[in-house]
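Hey everyone, long-time lurker, first post.

I ran two proteins through the pipeline my lab uses and got sequence/structure pairs for each. Pasting them in order. The first:
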Amino acid sequence: MTKASKVRKAVLPVAGLGTRFLPATKAMPKEMLPLVDVPSIQLIVEECVAAGIEEIVFVTARGKSAIEDHFDRAPELEALLERRGKTDDLARVRRPTELARYASVRQAEARGLGHAVLCARDVVGDEPFAVVLGDDLMDAPVPGVGQLIAEYDRLGTGVIALKEVPSGQEHLYGIADGERDGARGLKVKRLVEKPAPGTTASRLAIIGRYVLPPEIFGILAETPPGRGGEIQLTDGLATLCSRRGLYGLEVEGERFDVGDRAGYVIAMAHYALTRPELRDDVRAGLEKLLQRR
């Protein structure tokens, strides 16, 4: 098998409304909600860049311009910070703009995750690419998406990120089943989107990281609407699996579901505790709160 092409681009679908975080998301994209002082979407981009990604493709919608603005230059703010000698703040402001190249495409109507990925077809072109969902944050020594890219380079086939979930929670996720391959690998045989309780033996949930061949675009273009009348990425992956094969990898690292309110608060505490200048005060404050309850 010939070596796979280098994965240079990542598609970040960010068109969702974020209704679980209303009223905060009435005027702010949920992806801009901060983990301490860094928007969650920036942490996703930083993970991609650490994995060798060079270009980020945002799939946006109406009301999401704050995301594009965050990764664009802010000349007036930068000039003000420079005049005042605030070099550390200036570096933090400039950092998002310098991480990668950026492109944006619009998903004009909410037609599902598969449709969102399909919207990026013209920008990605005929090359493999990553898809990274903003609701799933990963803190790992080796970037989560980087773990998948390494497997894609080794196998030349699509790779999806997996995490085992507790029994009884399978219906909350897309679930992968198949033949185990080593300690963390899975030769995928079947994918089920949010299976009914008791209908699958596997507890390997698909989490928000994928590395896919360009053939997925043609597959998604011919995939009919599924659950909820939307074009489901899981349905496209099932077709890809039957035609070319699909591999699953249990990614190593801590995962945080920031699309869930409790998960977001837990992630906030985690990322605060990773900051040396905040760690002691945050730990002491959390311990005091827990003692009262």
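...and the second, right after it:
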Amino acid sequence: MTRTACPVRIYGVPMDLGQSRRGVDMGPSAIRYAGLQSRLENLGWTVYDAGNINAPVSEQIAADETFEGHSTHHMSAIAAVAQEIHDAMLKSVRANEDAIFLGGDHSISIGSISGALHRGDKVGVIWVDAHGDFNTPKTSPSGNIHGMVVTSLMGQGPSILSIGERRLKPDQIVMIGTRDLDFEERIALRESGIKVMTMRDIDEDGMANVVRSALETLGDVEAIHVSFDMDSLDPTVAPGVGTPVQGGLNYREAHLLLEMLADDGRVRSMDIVEVNPILDTFNYTAEIAVGLAASLFGQRII
């Protein structure tokens, strides 16, 4: 399936409030430095960089907030940034632009996906992540908002994190590459109705079959948003990430996933999150991120 190329708008969100380890706020600069815009332009896309959506640094705000007696670090500040991200995505939706949001930690997806849901009545999400991000303040061991993104999008968390008018439904999202879940989070995901394609599924069935199954699950959606956490990759492939977990996607599995999604023709937006240059070597992880984005936007071997 092919579609008419639309302009691509890039937004940076230099925010690390959603997790404990500092450094992912430098992710947007690292990915830009690795040549994202020129790489996409060389593929024939018209690309505009909208600059950064402002986010406070943790030293500017109070770290500790609570929700029903449970810790939720930086919740109010993250909600405010997520609202701005939502509005930026909505602007791109109305302009018929494709959009790429550069994180920052994965909490930025509260805003980008809530905005992407306005692309039509049928919108799907491919969630590529080592983690499920399906905690709530009650179940989270850390209180970090980047682990509560999907529940927030589904309206199951604090109301302040339910951005926009539309809520994500279980049949609108497929998780791929999952391998690190908290105890209560695992139970909640099993009961959620979300299709979760773990690393074992990839090991047993191969990435091509996993992608086909994911697209079959999403059905006849009109648009797809890909939320790509770089920690979905094995740390030997992408060392500079916020929360590395052994046993992840290898280089070709990740590229095949995105190449097949490009072939599908319905992807209209993307997050690239959790690049941490402090933990990286010579900006290698950001360069991998740019290559993966290129695969999603049509780069082919031949």
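Reply from user beta_strand_b:
Welcome! Quick read of the second one: The longest strand covers residues 223-229. Strands lie at 8-13, 47-52, 66-67, 70-71, 98-103, 123-128, 173-178, 195-198, 223-229, 267-273.
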